[in-house]
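User:
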Amino acid sequence: MARSIISVVTCAALLMMVAACGGEASAAKNDGATAQSDDVGRLMNDGLGEKAASSLSEYIDQSMRTLESSQQMKEFDPSGEATQRILKVLERAKEQGRVSVSDYESAWADYKQCMADRGYKEIVLIKEPNGIYKEASHRAGTAEQDARYGQDMLACGATTYSSIADVYKMQIGNPNLYKNQYEAALDCLHRNEAAPKDYSMDDLRFDLYEAASKDELKLDIYTPEVSQCLVANNITVFSDNSVTEQLW
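Assistant: Predicted structure:
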């Protein structure tokens, strides 16, 4: 059984992929394993017990300030047109108390079009039961193709859906506004009774980053009930039978 876990921390623009395959369990003993384990440990403990904001309204204000001050956004959107469009959506969300479903879905549609305009064959979006989208995985291309995709994905995401989706996922999957995405995911699992109350952060770490096969999992992280909480908190899990997109 092959699987991959993509953990995305939107606010820090950090992309991290960890892949574990049943036939590669011994890879945990290689030279990079300790560093990888340390990185995971830091990520899972960063901001533990803290809140991202005191309210969703404050979180939206933070998102707007981040968007306006982002140097990377200025590079992706030199005219400022996309930035102003996103700010209007966030302003509307603040007035309404939440990002609407229509604004969220329109932002993802804009992302698909942006990627299509850059020459990608297809972008496949998978909708979780809670309405959160994730982009399907794809087969690796050449080093040049993969590098270009990574840059295009970041540019199209930043100028279309990223800031909007960040707020939408917060209101759906992290209403308690936990700063740590893993703490938020665990809270979501408990609130939705998708995991037993004694399922812990250590259990979640094991299932995401240490289990070598599905049989070892303490909780089936591939079920819709579990996956929707993970995706809503920027942790995307793909099993070996997940749908894939054809980029090239």
